[in-house]
Specification:
Radius of gyration: 24 Å
Low-confidence stretches: 1-9
Strand content: 25-35%
Distance between the termini: 60 Å
Number of helices: 13
Largest sheet: 7 strands, mixed
Strand order of the largest sheet: 5-4-1-6-8-7-9
Oligomer: single chain
Helix content: 25-40%
Structural class: alpha/beta
Length: 480
């Protein structure tokens, strides 16, 4: 965070304009319309990377809950209904009150009817807002209600456009940006449908078709003590639920790490692990996807990813076994044979596990079965170039399948010296065109992403490799 002149640290305050009803939307408050299971306003609040959240608009029945969950403060413009610039000025007044000790700060100016805003986009805008204004650009237009301003600069801009006798009644936001020179405003292009607002019923329909599930990726450390791992699951599920996740993705081998007695653990603990997952998914009303081990033929197990939750009950058995770099996973693990997808209120999610990521055909097959995103729990092995390989493979699989890749690894134990894979961290969210959208280091942590299904559709239109690959398959089949 930075001030407008000396780049010293400061606060970020999000001011969300959420006022009134819309005649084009039938007289309803569009910021409270439901989108993918929650209101548009709540989706904006949970996406905003800010130290303080100020909502300028009328309090409704959700105000107490939103204050409790997000520490969001509700204020009204004065007088009510006096327009967006007056509403913003009221928000700035409240922001200055919050900064009791003064000092630098940045303002994220957001619209409460823009439910597809992304945290990584808002973070990038915020980091650009040092001595300039940074705004989202969608369909060739600057989004006035998705921008970051240095607070002092915003205060000066408001003063410059105020009515001669004071106040900002009935002034539009456009006035605020009109005097910015080309070197004073920088823009970031929107991806997918993140720049959409909801001015018409058609806009609302498009937003609802684009709004995918909220996924939490939990990079956790796995213990050789199963009881410790069950407690980790409890704690992590509660955090994911608090952050509004529809689905929590845990790593491969969450039940017990590699290098332990997998068969005995599967026999003695898998049922209790599965029961806990089912209990927690019902308690917190979200889907949980986690790595376990189930009994297979002989003395082997299946490396099984279980998915449990409202309307979801699926098991994926890892197809490709890690017989590489001196390891022989097939000696203790039997391979699966079936691809698995799950549906989450219209978001189709494929499942693959760790070593599967080296096999492009599995990811393209999942995409052809309808997967918008592919969940990849990992217990990646340490070794020379292994970190570089993992990032390259994740990005390549995203491009092969034009799907979002959601990969979560174990956080490696700091003092571990054994040969069995215990993770390297570096969990990541990869866009369908191969861009790293969010990532972690080696420590424990959680990534949360709202899927934008329009981004997937857009990628598949611009890069139709799935369609072209089907045609190529026919050629290769005839030639063989």
């Amino acid at each position: 965070m930075a001030s407008d002149d000396d780049h010293t640290p400061g606060y970020t305050i999000a001011i969300v304009l959420a006022g009134g009803t819309s005649s084009r939307m039938g007289g309803v408050d569009k910021t409270r319309l439901p989108v993918a299971g929650t209101s548009s306003l709540e989706r904006v609040l949970r996406a905003a990377p800010a130290d303080h959240l100020i909502v300028v608009g009328p309090e409704q029945q959700d105000a107490a809950d939103l204050h409790a969950r997000y520490s969001a403060w509700f204020v009204r413009e004065d007088p009510p209904g006096s327009g967006p610039l007056a509403a913003l000025a009221r928000g700035v007044e409240e922001a200055q009150r919050l900064l009791t000790e003064g000092g630098p700060a940045r303002i994220l100016l957001l619209g409460g009817d823009m439910p597809l805003l992304r945290t990584e986009t808002l973070t990038a805008l915020r980091e650009h807002a040092t001595d300039r204004v940074a705004a989202l650009e969608a369909d060739g237009r600057t989004q006035f209600l998705c921008a970051a301003w240095p607070l002092r600069r915003l205060r000066a801009a408001l003063d410059a456009v105020a009515h001669p006798d004071g106040g900002w009644q009935d002034l539009s936001l456009r006035r605020l940006y009109a005097d910015l020179g080309p070197d004073e405003l920088i823009t970031r292009p929107a991806h997918g449908h993140e720049g959409a607002d909801m001015d018409t019923p058609e806009d609302l329909d498009q937003v609802r078709r684009s709004a995918g599930a909220r996924i939490a990726l939990a990079q956790v450390r796995i213990s050789e003590d199963v009881a410790d791992n069950l407690e980790t699951v409890r704690r992590t599920v509660a955090e994911a639920a608090e952050r509004g996740a529809d689905l929590l993705l845990l790593p491969e081998a969450t039940l017990t790490p590699f290098g332990t007695d997998l068969r005995r653990t599967a026999e003695q603990h898998h049922q209790a692990f599965e029961a806990l997952i089912e209990q927690l998914s019902a308690q917190h009303d979200l889907v949980i996807v986690a790595g376990s081990f189930t009994v297979a033929d002989g003395d082997r197990v299946h490396n099984t990813v279980i998915a449990r939750g409202p309307g979801v009950h699926a098991d994926y058995r890892k197809i490709h076994l890690f017989d590489a770099y001196g390891s022989r996973e097939s000696e203790t693990v039997a391979p699966g044979t079936d691809l698995v997808t799950i549906d989450l209120d219209g978001t189709c999610l494929g499942i693959a596990t760790c070593y599967d990521v080296r096999f492009a055909e599995q990811f393209t097959a999942l995409a052809r079965q309808g997967a918008h995103a592919i969940l990849v729990p990992l217990a990646w092995a340490e070794g020379p170039t292994k970190s570089e390989q993992l990032r390259l493979l994740l990005r390549a699989r995203a491009l092969d399948s034009t799907s979002v890749i959601l990969a979560v690894d174990q956080a490696p134990p700091p003092d571990y010296t054994g040969r069995a894979p215990r993770g390297i961290g570096e969990s990541a969210v990869i866009s369908p065109l191969g861009k790293v959208q969010a990532e972690l280091g080696r420590e424990e942590g959680m990534l949360v992403v709202d899927l934008d299904l329009a981004e997937v559709d857009e990628a598949r239109r611009s890069l139709p490799v799935l369609e072209h690959g089907t045609a190529a398959d026919d050629v290769f089949r005839r030639s063989s």
